[in-house]
Design a protein that fits this description.
8-stranded parallel β-barrel, globular, TIM Barrel, single chain, two-stranded antiparallel sheet, 13 helices, alpha/beta
Length: 319
Amino acid sequence: MALRPPSRILGSPLVIAHRGASGHRPEHTLGSYELAYRLGADSVELDVVATKDGHLVCRHDVELSRTTDVARRPEFTHLRRTLEVEGELQTGWFVHDFTLAELRELRTRERWSRKRSASASHDGRWPVPTLAEVVELRDAEAARTGTRLGIHVELKSVAHLRTQGLWLPELIADPEADDLTFMSFSSSALEALGASRSYKIYDQTPAPKELSRISEFVSGVAVRRKAVLPRDVGGRVGEPSKLVAKAHKRGLDVLVWTHRAENQHLPSNLRIGAAPHGHGDAAGEAAMLFQAGIDGLISDFPEIAVVGRRRLPGLAEAL
């Protein structure tokens, strides 16, 4: 079994592949996770939800039509329905209405087919993976390379799934909890899980009092890039905020999400050309984030994040 990495390996902040190498392969597939490790990621970030029969599977959304071919499967037409999910009415096919055996009949596809057409060329290649399969893949890659590799597991749609009788912390097997790092927007789920390493995710920048409160039960925070590198009115980035220093003062690590290469996701002063789907200086943004002292960068393009990390002054690339 591969050892769970600390927040930093040999003094280096982590590169964590967002939903695998999701800039190159359809998200949350074994192909995406395997490629991520081979591109230099220290860990992969995956979102877990639960099937009707209580199996943990890797999907960002409980509704399946954006990232699978379920809408083209007539045998599952009867499962289409309208449901309120976390205050929003959604119509489609929901993971908790499928058994694992039924879900495995589906095939995955690229979420953003226009923006990432190369990734979309792999549509239909892989089924929806289980958490257990990703652990097996990670262990095989760690054995192949002789390195420590991690998995950052985000518990998704926690409150909604609980209304369906599926409480995610209860579905995590004890051996898995010892070997994985967990993340969630839900404080109650993280407290119930009691994992040795866990991160509270924030959509908005947490205040110092909030950092002090959560330091009692989590290892760190996961925040948006803007929380660390604020943008001015023109969308440019300059000096970092003091969030990293405030978190570190309270013994909390800081992970940053989500780093992407396309111009439309980059600060205006790091864009190259005018094409929104064209790639800008994403390595430059990664370097700025690492220089701000973050402990890990969650990226769709792990190989670019690795390049940015290499720009840290005095850092000997040891991974």
